[in-house]
Design brief:
2 copies of one chain form a homodimer. Chain A has 173 residues and is of the alpha/beta class. Chain A contains 4 helices and 11 strands. An 8-stranded mixed beta sheet of chain A has the order 5-4-3-6-1-7-11-10. In chain A, strands 2-9 form a two-stranded antiparallel sheet. In chain A, helix 2 links the parallel strand 3 and strand 4. The mean pLDDT of chain A is 96.
Chain lengths: 173, 173
């Protein structure tokens, strides 16, 4: 048994997750100190976070480490000095998931564009929560890319928030 | 006063509106003879349809002409012999909208990928209804493209349908 693999990410209407330079300023319009769009509830069900190196480097710049009490695996081929107990993995995700399962990890949060696409490529993503931010950026880093295998999903819910964010949740068919 | 300009279109989760060859087979999973996802109600408010040549050629292949009782304008530089009273336009959309307004057209349905992008480029789209089809195609004809001007939208509603289609409606901010 491998862990359940989950994606939870904000995208523009033209399915970008960041500007070309990595900028996230366009998220400001939906950031709300009183509304986390289910993030805390989602994270409470997650045992491990698997993220790409560039997402990791971004997160290191935050005021505080957001993954305290989670197992964290950084996908990278480059050296890394763990600061919060994080470990490193390179290569396919499937063997990593097998290892995590043996360590009693039940649910994995896959984060970062490259990592999410790798999960979709390996067809190991079990659920997908997309928070649609009501902007068309007209350019940036796309979440999906040409060449991903075709996949069908089951819609679990669609929810409108007062900020203008629409969240759609899917599980793999 | 120009008419209200509306977009109403089905897209995959990776924001494609057709496969590379124009194929729409992936829509089959959400096609339902008892559910039109608000299309008839939307069309009842539309006075004119403005569509690109390739969408027009596709529509001509349908069993029946779907735009009876609507003013139809085809965007094309190539010759066209009207079969249902359709007229032709080439060039920017703004002057066409002015002409349509003078002909008592209050709301225009903009259809076809190239035409919709042109409307977004000219910043004349007033509302956007996106029907998210629960598939990742992994390639095809994208609705949005790099180089569109950045735009912000107001979420009007998000609705989940039993078929798995999620419809989000936006108006321009």
């Amino acid at each position: 048994m491998r862990p359940r693999v989950s994606v939870y990410i904000a995208i523009s209407l033209d399915q970008c997750i960041a500007r070309d330079d990595g900028g996230l300023d366009w998220l400001a319009g939906v950031q709300d100190s009183k509304e986390d769009y289910g993030y805390a509830a989602f994270m409470a069900t997650v045992d491990a976070v698997v993220l790409g190196r560039s997402t990791y480097d971004t997160v290191l710049g935050f005021d505080s480490w957001p993954f305290a009490d989670k197992r964290v695996v950084v996908l990278t081929h480059r050296p890394l000095t763990p600061r919060f107990g994080e470990s490193v993995h390179a290569g396919a995700l499937a063997p990593l998931m097998a290892t995590l399962a043996s360590q009693d990890v039940r649910r994995v949060y896959l984060d970062g564009g490259v990592t999410i696409r790798q999960g979709l490529e390996e067809e190991i993503v079990d659920d997908l929560t997309l928070s649609l931010v009501p902007v068309i950026l007209g350019g940036g880093r796309p979440l999906f890319s040409d060449g991903l295998p075709e996949s069908a999903w089951r819609l679990e819910s669609a929810q409108a928030y007062p900020s203008g964010l629409a969240q759609v949740r899917y599980s793999r068919r």
